[in-house]
Amino acid sequence: MAITLSERAAGHVSRNLARRGKGLGLRLGVRTTGCSGLAYKLEYADQPFPEDLQFESHGVHIFVDPKSLAYIDGTELDFVREGLNEGFKFNNPNVKSECGCGESFNV
Predict the structure, then answer these.
(1) What pLDDT sits at residue 84?
(2) Which region holds residue 5: left if phi is over 0, alpha if psi is between -120 and 50, else beta?
(3) Are 25 and 45 in contact (CB under 8 A)?
(4) What is residue 83's predicted lDDT score, i.e. its pLDDT?
(5) What is the DSSP letter of 24?
(6) Which of 9, 65, 68, 72 could pair with 5 in a Cys bridge, judged by C-beta atoms 3.0 to 4.6 Å apart?
């Protein structure tokens, strides 16, 4: 069981945490929404929650709630640039289908 970051994603997160001046790492989870059923939640973590599972990748701490891990176990979070757009890309081996707009997924 693990969640990882690419080197690009880890660098992006580290730089933003330094700019914020606070934070322990990244909190990753899922929520029920969208046309396919699930969507990713991503935010900076200023403190761990008691139930959090913790991972470390390229020096960045990742916090995940146990319920979300069932849907995102094995995911690598990458940071990509496509033309003028940039953002996180979730490489989740559990995804069976995604909605057309790319906002939600199904496992």
Answers:
(1) 87
(2) beta
(3) yes
(4) 87
(5) S
(6) 9
Give me 51's structure tokens: 């139930």
Q: Are the beta carbons of 28 and 77 closer than 8 angstroms?
A: yes
Q: Block means of pLDDT (10 residues each) for the chain, length 107 residues?
A: 93 96 94 79 95 96 95 94 90 77 66
The total of other beta-carbon atoms located within 10 Å of residue 65's CB is: 15
Instruction: Report how far apart, in Å, the C-alpha atoms of 14 and of each of 35, 49, 57, 100, 105 are.
Output: 33, 20, 11, 31, 27
What pairing do the DSSP bridges indicate for beta strands 25-33 and 4-5? unpaired
Q: Positive or negative CA dihedral for 106, 44, 87, 6?
A: negative
pLDDT given at position 34:
62
In terms of Cβ atoms closer than 10 Å to its own Cβ (0-12, 13-18, 19+), residue 98 is middle
Token readout for 25 is 């790492």
Beta pairing, strands 85-91 & 76-82: antiparallel
